[in-house]
Write a structure and sequence with these properties.
- The protein has 3 helices and no strands.
- The chain is an all-alpha fold.
- The longest helix is centred in the middle third of the chain and has 33 residues.
- It is elongated.
- The C terminus is likely disordered.
Length: about 120
């Protein structure tokens, strides 16, 4: 990570990108360790137990990354720490939105304003 507020080449804040990458790799690690554990089941119980512990550690990292990513996205969409402050835009995934009913009402208003003027 180069800096806290930069967006680099991806257009995404470095912390958001970093947390997403850690989450992805932790989940990949779980999948890999489960495969290795299955491979070891028939031969070496000590290895199977090691891979089971490794998968559990990766799961814990993934859960922690999800929590931190959620918090980071909430700050970003609510104008915290230089995210999209003042842009009026929320996340494409609904983070920071004030509720689906309000979003639906906004859509209806936008559709009603242009619907009868075709």
């Amino acid at each position: 990570m180069q800096n806290q507020g930069g967006s680099g080449q991806t257009g995404t804040r470095d912390t958001t990108y970093d947390l997403t990458a850690v989450l992805y790799h932790a989940l990949q690690g779980v999948e890999n360790c489960e495969t290795y554990q299955q491979d070891a089941q028939s031969g070496d119980q000590q290895l199977a137990q090691f891979f089971q512990q490794a998968a559990q550690t990766q799961r814990q990292l993934a859960e922690q990354a999800k929590t931190l990513l959620h918090d980071c996205l909430m700050k970003e969409t609510q104008g915290g720490q230089g995210g999209q402050q003042g842009s009026g835009q929320g996340s494409a995934f609904g983070f920071g939105q004030q509720g689906s009913r309000q979003i639906g009402q906004q859509s209806e208003m936008a559709g009603g304003a242009s619907g009868g003027q075709n």
